[in-house]
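Teaching assistant's notes for section 4

Start the section by putting this record on the projector. Ask students to predict, before seeing the second block, whether DUF6760 family protein will look compact or extended. Collect guesses on the board.
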Amino acid sequence: MTYATERLYEEVAYVAYHFHWGLDSILDLEHPERLRYVAQIARLNSLATGR
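Reveal the predicted structure now:
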């Protein structure tokens, strides 16, 4: 099964935007690790906005 290209772009953009990491650094992450960062960023954003 291949991971949806659009979803991969969304994850990379999300992590890059919030952590200012480069493309290579983000793509070097294993998929579960990258998803963990996405979830953590979402949690931090929710805490910051009170949602």
